[in-house]
What does this fold into?
Amino acid sequence: MQSCEFVIRPLTGNDAGAVLAFSRQIGGETDHLTFGPEGLPLGEEQERGFLEKAADTPDRLMLGAWDGERLVGTAEIARLSNKARLAHRAQFAVSVARSHWNRGIASALACRCLQRAREMGCTVVELEVLENNAPAIHLYQKLGFSTVGRHPCFFRYADGRCAPALLMHCYL
It folds into this structure.
């Protein structure tokens, strides 16, 4: 296993270009994401604004994992709603560049996000994962997530194929 020194820190508006480049990179590496090699559908100024707003929102944390100057992983935890009946729920997502898989980056990002969810007072963290993404499912199970449902056609690809996904929860 190749070693990797990485730093995890909150993303800021200044990271917009790196986040967009990262999204294009990972979008071309897997079909497990909501986007392909085109990356996120935002320009750099739009992404900068989004990251700045997210950084000022107490109910959201967006993290980046950096290997030197290169962004190699991102994660987000966000409260689903401030409505009293839903405020206990948070949504989680994580992505790591293929070149940095199996180096503990996703686990480290996830642990930071789950801790933030606890600090926000959330008791349920939710995610969706494609059913054929065995490495991600294994990671989520290791972190305490369990399957609570299944969506038979979560993604529909351009060729008409459906990709089913699991809905997983972690109870904090």
